Amino acid sequence: MLKSPITCRSISILALFKFKKTSENGRVARAKVLTIDTMNPTVKNAKYAVRGPIVARAAELERELNEGMKKPFDEVIKANIGDAHAMGQQPITFFRQALAICSYPELLNDSTFPEDAKSRAYRILQSCGGNSMGSYSASQGIDSVRQDVARYIERRDGGVPSDPDNIFLTTGACDGIMTMLKLLVCGEGPTRTGIMIPIPHYPMYSATLVELAAVQVNYYLNEEKCWSVDISELKRALDEARHYCNPRALCIVNPGNPTSQVETRQCIEDVIRFAAKERLFLMADEVYQDNVYGHGCRFHSFKTVLFEMGPEYSNTMELVSFHSTSKGYMGECGFRGGYMEVINMDDEVKAELTKLLSVRLCSPVPGQALVDLVFNPPQPGEPSYDNFIKERTAILSALEEKAKLTEQVLNTVPGISCNPVQGAMFCFPRITIPEKAMIEEQGQQPDVFYCMKMLEEAGICVIPGSGFGQKEGTYHFRMTILPPIDKLQILLNKVKEFHQKFTQKYS
Amino acid sequence: MLKSPITCRSISILALFKFKKTSENGRVARAKVLTIDTMNPTVKNAKYAVRGPIVARAAELERELNEGMKKPFDEVIKANIGDAHAMGQQPITFFRQALAICSYPELLNDSTFPEDAKSRAYRILQSCGGNSMGSYSASQGIDSVRQDVARYIERRDGGVPSDPDNIFLTTGACDGIMTMLKLLVCGEGPTRTGIMIPIPHYPMYSATLVELAAVQVNYYLNEEKCWSVDISELKRALDEARHYCNPRALCIVNPGNPTSQVETRQCIEDVIRFAAKERLFLMADEVYQDNVYGHGCRFHSFKTVLFEMGPEYSNTMELVSFHSTSKGYMGECGFRGGYMEVINMDDEVKAELTKLLSVRLCSPVPGQALVDLVFNPPQPGEPSYDNFIKERTAILSALEEKAKLTEQVLNTVPGISCNPVQGAMFCFPRITIPEKAMIEEQGQQPDVFYCMKMLEEAGICVIPGSGFGQKEGTYHFRMTILPPIDKLQILLNKVKEFHQKFTQKYS
User: Fold this and answer.
1) Which of A12, B42, B235, B486 sits a CA distance of 20 to 30 A from A444?
2) pLDDT for position A12
3) Cα–Cα distance between A429 and A219 in angstroms, integer?
4) Is A318 helix (H, G, I), strand (E, B) or coil?
5) Closest residue of A to B365, CA-based?
């Protein structure tokens, strides 16, 4: 990336110079219409560390290694993102067989494909215009897919009814979350919409809020209690925020990212009571609902708890829950499949939501097909059932093992302390950074300095805690637990070694 | 959709009533947090007729027909949207074979699949993390796909160089257009960014501008000159707009939607000169570049013309061009594949663009794979070449025939006049609506009234011109030319018959 050596952008004489500088052929060159000074400031102000400068440097290092440059490591391990297949996880055979048939329906006649993959693909194709995944779907998503999702939710929630009309298929969960946030934002100055988000948090939330010029209202997760949500902290955050904005929604990520906590049923009930009392719209990011490993932990959907609390809550509380095909055991990030279920949403708002989605026409149909397969997988007695269960179990058991290994190894390192990885795909250990390192880092955040060193010295790419937010004076990093177990072991040992050296050097 | 019978939303006592109304169990029900009155007003104000009330009514009529209700027609013909596969167009075999292999790489071992489909799929998979379409790609898109797109552009533009670093893969073209518009918008009041768009226009533009609170600056296409762009009209629109906003970008859609014109090389050169002189960022929506049928018409990319105009232009003019896999001969709308090429974009802005895309992680990988296949299709000598050419030619020839048939039939109807369908997939005929009909329509726009009647009486779903914008006092509708030729013939005869009856009734 070329950068102008002149960084002081506010001096207007420089702008004038920029405008008048001559091009090669001696004519006066036109100044650019769109520059960093004249672009949308909300876009410029948004931050997104998960794909920020450390990740860019990691890609550079990979290129340098490929070109034969000597480094203190043989390979860059990208532990910065929850990208299961990139880490070597194999796709679930059934899903890919059915998707291949949907892509090339001639395969319906191929005797090597199992009948259940064929029947699922056939049903999906029947629901597509012209029986082709190449047609646009309805903006809300294919009808039969939304029906299958609703039935899945009913099974998951022990029979609590789910209406396909409340299901909206999305381009990954992010798209749904961004769309909902966009609907919620209004007002100016002290009446501007505030959105409560956890700290630490997945930075798509803060980046979107900056883009929407909404007010980010931080509530801190309790690191001492395994990153759980604390109602008194919610109350503190809300009361303070009411002085400068209009807080209208509360986002909960369960299981947590980057913090991997799994909230208890009691906690969820308390959050619902709080949101009801304080008139907050509830946004439950539940994309890691299949990723639960912690001892005694269980996933409780916000919707089930809401319905168990009786009609006072279930008839009135506005809730939207997000899910995705990118996480869980399938890890199909590239297909950008997802859905959201809206509960008690005002009918006129629902119509506006549909309109908003319709401007983008529809979410990708292969992603919608995958949503259908994931939420309507092989059933007992069907030909793919045994293999499906085998593959799914292997992936989830390995994840559980990796979660435990990560916690265990990191906690053997003096200066690193790691909460149990109860769920999701990440650990978020707290690190002690020596005073001297803080002096040396020269304007970088200390944890950015730490992670950049880890990348340069050990070839490990993790994301500094400051990219997710953390309590002042505390430092963390986020690392995925996704590499295969032998590689994860190497990775953890390298982290250990790096941390020890780093501490020694700056002590 | 349930609607409250009370429509006067501004009376606060009603809001109070709403808040205090009791629920079934006698308790005080909570008012909703998110209502039509408290949602994001920019979302509410956006309009998108292509999927609006007429299309909703068409879906309803289809359901009613299926339930056995009697109608004056046997089927609803949805001629409202450019959705080729939904109209029965078959996918290109080669693309779907390669996509099936990408989905289920076991098919690399299947001897019934042609070698070129295998080699393309293999190359795509090699560029995916973990060799799986289930991985996230880089936010800008898969490297090798961007390389193939750049090479395609070079071939198309007679050797004008294209840099893969300037290619950004997008979720359909809309996503690219929305992203670019988002980058461009800044300022407040009279310095707010204005964006020049054609009238009539594809309403994604206006809906996005409303969402972004940007100022829509209309320039009218010249219906008398086959909907071409007129420089004096651009100048008029710009000069007027400068009194109330800061016009920064000019959007050109070539071939046009809904107006189907193909701009001449001279016109494009004039537009570039105009944009250069007036310091406007150029946005060229060229998604219909393969859809050119008009006698003597040829597609000229803005980029080629820019480079032919010499370094004074090619070294400085900021241009972005959009393309898609949804149109052309492939019509793969559901995959949401697309790209944009940015020319002379400021490097810092390019970095911000990448960051903005990265918050959404990446565009769908199956769509990216399709982009690769479309822009790197079978070559002479490869096993799929002959069949590919045969399929492509058949589709494009049929479209040409349909374009001519449409123009010809519609122009036989007194009160309908239709410009030649030079390109794209639509006709946009002008219709005469009798005075009496205008009295009867009771608050609806006359062309909405006309199209709704056409739907109810003839079962034909088209979009009223007011959804695209039109000169005051003129009325049009947009109809796709995509149905198979025999069905199109029926459709056109029904339109003819309907128009005659309608004119008779209201004369």
Assistant:
1) A12
2) 35
3) 19
4) coil
5) A334
Residue with tokens 């606060």: B12
Q: How far is B219 from chain A (nearest CA, A)?
A: 20
**Pair B124, B59 in one domain:** no
How far apart are alpha carbons A506 and A436 in whole angstroms? Answer: 5
For residue B85, list chain A residues with Cβ-Cβ distance below 8 A: 128-130, 132, 134-135
Amino acid at A462: V
> Which residue in chain B has the smallest CA separation from A177?
B360
Average of per-residue pLDDT across B253-263: 96
Q: What is the CATH number of the domain that holds B198?
A: 3.40.640.10
CB atoms within 10 A of CB B189: 8
Q: Which domain holds residue A35?
A: 12-39
Listed in sequence order, the residues at least 6 apart from B323 whose beta carbon sits closer than 8 Å to its beta carbon are: B173, B286, B287, B289, B338, B339, B340, B341
Pairwise CB contact (< 8 Å): A43 & B351: no
Q: How many domains does chain A have?
A: 3
* Residue found by looking up tokens 């009533």 in the block: B17
pLDDT averaged over every residue in chain B: 90
Summarised one tens digit per residue, pLDDT across range B309-348 is 999 999 999 999 999 999 999 999 999 999 999 999 999 9
Residue B260 lies inside a defined structural domain of this protein: yes
Query: Does A485 fall in a domain?
Result: yes
The token duo for B186 is 């800044």
Chain A positions touching B196 (Cβ under 8 A) are none
Q: What is the pLDDT of residue B443?
A: 73
CATH number assigned to the domain comprising residue B478: 3.90.1150.10
In this predicted complex, what is the ipTM?
Answer: 0.89
Helix (H, G, I), strand (E, B) or coil at A280: coil
Final residue of a structural domain among B341, B375, B409: B375
Report the pLDDT averaged over residues B469-487: 94
Verify that A80 and A207 share a domain, yes or no.
no
Q: A47-56, B318-327, B382-391, B475-484: which has the minimum mean pLDDT?
A: A47-56
Domain end marker among B375, B409, B442: B375
Written in H, E and C, the secondary structure of B283-350 is EEECCCCCCECCCCCCCCCHHHHHHHCCHHHHCCCCEEEEEECCCCCCCCHHHCEEEEEEECCCHHHH
DSSP H/E element including B398: helix B385-410
Does B41 map to a domain?
no
Whether residues B132 and A86 touch (CB distance < 8 A) is answered with yes
Is the backbone of residue B265 left (phi > 0), alpha (psi -120 to 50) or beta? alpha
Of A88, A132, A139, Cβ closest to residue B130: A88
- Report chain B residues whose CB lies below 8 A from the CB of A360: 171-172, 174-175, 178
Which residues of chain A neighbour B373 with C-beta distances below 8 Å? Answer: none
The pair of structure tokens assigned to B365 is 């990988």
The pLDDT of residue B11 is above 70: no
pLDDT in tens, B38-66: 888 888 877 776 667 888 899 899 989 99
Specify the higher pLDDT residue, A27 or B308: B308
Same domain (yes/no): A35, A159: no
What confidence score (pLDDT) does residue A1 get? 34
- Rounded alpha-carbon distances, angstroms, from residue A401 to A157, A421, A482, A496: 27, 10, 11, 19
Q: Are residues A136 and A274 in the same domain?
A: yes
A153 and A17, same domain (yes or no): no
Tokens 């690191």 map to which residue? A223
CB contact under 8 A, B359 and A208: yes
* pLDDT value for B361: 84
Domain membership flag for residue B357: yes
Is pLDDT of B20 > 70? no
Shortest distance, CA B446 to any CA of chain A (angstroms)? 23
- Same domain for B277 and B153? yes
Segments of chain A with pLDDT less than 50: 1-28
Q: Are residues A147 and A259 in the same domain?
A: yes
Domain co-membership, B142 together with B81: no
Closest in B3, B171, B359 to A48, CB measured: B359
